[in-house]
Write a structure and sequence with these properties.
This protein is α+β, with helices and mostly antiparallel strands. The chain has three helices and seven strands; from the N terminus they run E-E-E-E-E-H-H-E-H-E. It binds L-tyrosinamide.
Length: 125
């Protein structure tokens, strides 16, 4: 099995669905294997980046945020903005921790720079 992700290079999936990086042996000085254990590895935790609705941030500003920081088309950005506007929150994307954190910081900094109260948070999936 090779899915092409950084976390699964050289990783095989066993029949029971568990994840293994292969056989790990504890060796004595002469190299004799005393114990054979499978090292379990897991895919990284993933985080949703969410936008929250408020009464003041202009719709156009939110659309620009979604296009700029989440690579959405204008049409997709408008759909997501309207969902947040109507339902209170919406998902901008799902990313590993560091990338999600960077997106949240970028949105907060951009909103602050333009003096809008737009809220952006992350939440583990
Ligand atoms: N509710 C805002 C308005 O009516 C628009 C808005 C949409 C604000 C999405 C924030 O995350 C948001 N101007």
């Amino acid at each position: 099995m090779s899915g092409g992700h950084a976390w699964d290079s050289g990783v095989s999936q066993s029949i029971d669905g568990g994840w293994s990086s292969g056989i790990m042996g504890t060796k004595s000085r002469d190299g004799t294997v005393l114990e054979v254990k499978k090292a379990k590895v897991k895919p990284p935790p993933m985080f949703k980046v969410l936008l929250l609705n408020d009464d003041y941030t202009p719709m156009e500003f939110v659309v620009v945020v979604l296009q700029t920081f989440f690579s959405m088309s204008r049409e997709k950005a408008t759909q997501v903005m309207l969902k947040v506007h109507r339902e209170g929150m919406g998902v901008c994307g799902v990313y590993p921790r560091d990338i999600a954190n960077t997106k949240v910081e970028q949105v907060r900094n951009y909103a602050q720079k333009h003096q809008h109260p737009l809220q952006c948070v992350m939440e583990e999936t």
